[in-house]
Write a structure and sequence with these properties.
It comes from Gymnodinialimonas phycosphaerae. Pfam families: LptD_N. InterPro entries: LPS_export_LptA (IPR052037), OstA-like_N (IPR005653). One of its GO terms (molecular function) is glycolipid transfer activity. This protein has 160 residues and is mainly beta. The chain has one domain: lipopolysaccharide transport protein A fold. Strands 1, 2, 3, 4, 5, 6, 7, 8, 9, 10 and 11 form an eleven-stranded antiparallel sheet that branches. The termini are close together. The N terminus is likely disordered.
């Protein structure tokens, strides 16, 4: 019976319209967004007029247990100067990890104040043995929950 219900759920998931949404948890526990944002990269360009820093080449951004890797990252500072990170915008293939959870996509935007992480472009989320793909993902890092939107696809594991 359990296998039939899992199969039925999978069939229903695959037949949902293009605007389907699947709720996910990411990281499992609440996130402390008050921690500093640390960036490591091969290069850095500063623009004092726009209040932005552009990191290029093997960029790694870390805040607590949240880790983001990308080809390029633009840091937008808030009104308090270069210690007040407002946004982290990543491009060039992005991988985000937190605990055992991972997500990848073409680009990402992390709003530090609201702790919202948005991945776009062929998003793939892996959580243990479960994988979910879609067009975009939005995660509230404080709450540890989020959603995958677009043509969502997942494979549900069976039990013997």
């Amino acid at each position: 019976m359990h296998r039939i219900l899992a199969l039925l759920g999978f069939v229903l998931l695959l037949t949902q319209p293009a605007a389907a949404q699947v709720d996910i948890g990411f990281g499992g526990v609440a996130f402390d967004d008050r921690q500093p944002v640390e960036v490591t990269a091969d290069g850095l360009t500063l623009d004092q007029t726009t209040g932005e820093a552009i990191f290029t080449g093997n960029v790694i951004v870390v805040q607590g247990d949240l880790r983001m890797a990308a080809g390029a990252v633009r840091i937008v500072y808030g009104t308090q100067g270069n210690q007040d990170v407002s946004e982290v915008i990543a491009t060039g293939g992005v991988l985000v990890t937190r605990g055992a959870d991972a997500a990848e996509g073409g680009s990402a935007r992390y709003d530090v104040a609201s702790a919202l992480l948005t991945l776009s472009g062929n998003v793939l989320v892996t959580q243990g043995p479960t994988a979910i793909s879609g067009d975009s993902m939005v995660v509230n890092m404080r709450a540890g929950n989020g959603s995958v939107d677009g043509r969502v696809r997942t494979v549900l594991g069976g039990t013997d």
